[in-house]
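Submission sheet (multi-component)
Chains listed below:
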Amino acid sequence: TQLLEQSPQFLSIQEGENLTVYCNSSSVFSSLQWYRQEPGEGPVLLVTVVTGGEVKKLKRLTFQFGDARKDSSLHITAAQPGDTGLYLCAGMNNRLAFGKGNQVVVIP
Amino acid sequence: KAGVTQTPRYLIKTRGQQVTLSCSPISGHRSVSWYQQTPGQGLQFLFEYFSETQRNKGNFPGRFSGRQFSNSRSEMNVSTLELGDSALYLCASSLERGLNTEAFFGQGTRLTVV
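Outcome: structure written.
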């Protein structure tokens, strides 16, 4: 059983469109991290959210941590081809538990 | 500074063999974690080492083992390889253990068991 469920598994959009992906769990986490992984590479940390309800922005990426600290969302505004990748969420308690990822493809 | 280095990048082994993978963390980092990544299961936690001691272990059989040396470099070993062990094995290093510690990943070792 996957501790963190990410949806949708796969998303293909045109350049300039907006998108939102989700990370849900029945467990409460001390913090939650989002990573992006490109083919042939390891995941790279994008953001860590700690407080329930917290919103963090990283250029065109907006991350939100749910009030109950069980879920999170990632919103990308005006997506660009460089945003293509596998987005992984990871919940932290005594160790990081990862979801299977949201595969995002941005078509030029 | 240099990132996390994993060697080798690619490996092909036959069933029944054993394999050792290596991970050199970022200089000064003392925590090293290992993950197995497959398309079907995503990233699955194998184990975490800190100051040469295993601090945490995932739900993998005893064929999977690891160790950490005094310079924080880590190795993981898989014995009696099975076809299902084919995966990308990722190592991540962190400065310390902690709830909000950032993990830096290596590029991984792609293991194929035939």
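Remark: The radius of gyration of chain B is 13 Å.
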